Amino acid sequence: MARVTIADTPQRLLLVHAHPDDEVIGTGATMAHYAAAGAHVTLVTCTLGEEGEIHLPELAQLEARQADQLGGYRLTELARSCAALGVTDQRWLGGAGRYRDSGMMGLETNNHPRAFWQADLDEAAGHLVEIMREVRPQVLITYDDNGFYGHPDHIQAHRVAMRAAGLAAAEGFGPDKIYWTAMPRSVMEAGMEAFAGSADNPFADLEKVDDLPFGTPDEDIAAKIDATEQHDRKIAALRAHASQVPDDSWLYSIAGNFGGEFMGVEYYRLAHGAKGPGSGPHGWESDLFAGITAPAPVP
């Protein structure tokens, strides 16, 4: 695939994610949608995902407590995922391996000297500012201040992205709009109802939607990106992360029941910038670039 040059693209989207595979689960359809439309999509991944749980027995020896080579393997998985999504511009924050996967909150791995959770915020944000200076994105996507579900690296990715956006704005090239990934409560409730009583119910241990560590009131959602035409690309990108997403994953289970409706529709909160025209009872945007009237200059 020919690389799209930044200067040729009037729409430029930057995403900041914590680990390989995070890009697919919450934003894969959005990335594929805008890449197919000719936008310049830049993915910045903050760690190699060294502490991930391995679901392929033949790769078990790569785990952190043994060979500690999972990060190198996931680097290739991310490359295949981006190819499936049509994304040609993928960067590692500060370079591949600069920051290490911190593991889940409260584990000893949080204290590793290279753990992203321990990263100096201004230093890490400085690496992202350099990418912003080159790309000049009008739209930035990252997590909310709880990292969507509380993972320390997701929280740190949020902090780094927001600090970098502020620094870039002070220099005159900050993004026009910043979105945080989100899931409407109505969608979560519908999912819980649809799977009630089924053998492969991913919500089996939950009694109500408030028991989930995420979920956003519908009125706080700003954008709904319907990219159902990219359903197959998102599935292919998920399968590229085979070490992390097993064939019997609940993601494939839900996809099998709802298909493109689940895999191809993604939601966002607007954290910065003016909301563009929308529709429906809450005025949800259907385009993240809605309301942006002029492309940011590229040096």
From TrEMBL:
It is an enzyme of class 3 (hydrolase). GO terms for molecular function: N-acetylglucosaminylinositol deacetylase activity; zinc ion binding. Pfam families: PIG-L. Keywords: Hydrolase, Metal-binding, Zinc. Binds 1 zinc ion per subunit. InterPro entries: GlcNAc_PI_deacetylase-related, LmbE-like_dom_sf, Mycothiol_biosynthesis_MshB. Zn(2+) binds at H19, D22, H154. This is 1D-myo-inositol 2-acetamido-2-deoxy-alpha-D-glucopyranoside deacetylase. HAMAP family: MshB. One of its GO terms (biological process) is mycothiol biosynthetic process. Its cofactor is Zn(2+).
